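note to self — DONT lose this again. spent like an hour looking for the file last time. sequence + predicted structure for the chain T wanted, 365 res
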Amino acid sequence: MPENTLLSFEEKISMKLMSLFSGYGYKKFKMSKFEEYDLYIENKSFLKSDNIIAFNDPTGKLLALKPDVTLSIAKNTAENESEPRKLFYSENVYRVSGNMHEFKEINQIGLEFIGDVDTYSLCEVLNLAKLSLAQISDSYVLDISHMGLLIGLLESTGLPYDAKEEISGYIGTKNSHEIRRVCGEYGVDTVLCEKITTLASLYGSIDKIIPEAEKLIVNDTTEKAVNELKTVCTALKYSGNADNINIDFSVVSDISYYNGITFRGFIENVPGSILSGGRYDNLLKKLGKNSGAVGFAVYMDLLSYLDRDNDRYDADVLLVYDKNASAEEVFNKVNELKSEGNRVFASSVPCKNIKYKTKIILGEE
């Protein structure tokens, strides 16, 4: 029997991803369905949604069904990690799904590297993100950015935090008009404003965008960011792992949590990003941990947008046999069909509600 013929498309992808991660030394992390509500409410800007299902346990403690896994892993990290921790997870999270405006139990698979994030470690996580997309579809792209370039440019403006956050949001939507408006309201230098506006529009291959990013260097923060991005991209390129990777500085995340490379993965025919991640040392600092961290998550609920041939059918073959046929005869035919890799639904009646690819009537060619 072909491997995994009884698994759904999502289950097959899940198994492939977990096998991929474990092959690089990542260990499965298992957590409770619940966390203290305060962990999420104090870090709600880190979450994809601030809608949280909360309840009181028998002791009166306020708990929440987990809307995120990374926060729980960060919370359970030692204050000073002396050795790297490589973790992956396959967990259900509870949050509002897409445009449905209702809570859903959503399977999320991802990994986290916690410790000294050197160049290889960062490249390994990026390559695993790329390989994860490749497990789902041949038509994919991984867009990478570096928050340090944005943070450094915003540092030079002298803008208040709220204005920086506003501009960060407009960079995410590539809204040049609104970037210029905010800069104008606060009297930001015209040349600096144009550099920020240019940042939002930069998108393309590594070879094309790195030289353009170097033109945006204005201080130590931006120089460090561009150099790290260039180092990582060079390592990926010369190790043969840079295919399907673009640089896109509109890939932004909350500047209070993310401090380095960020990235998103896209699959053809899936609206929005199906994978997102980045370096989030600032989150660990906020939780009192002295460590680096980088990771990503794959949003398995979005796989429903893909064409899943097997899931459209209950069986490959509907085998209809006469009630007078012997059980041995039916078994032999079922086993023959299954040996060819088919999923077989055997019945003595035609079964109008069964979705199948092929119908065979036992005794007819």
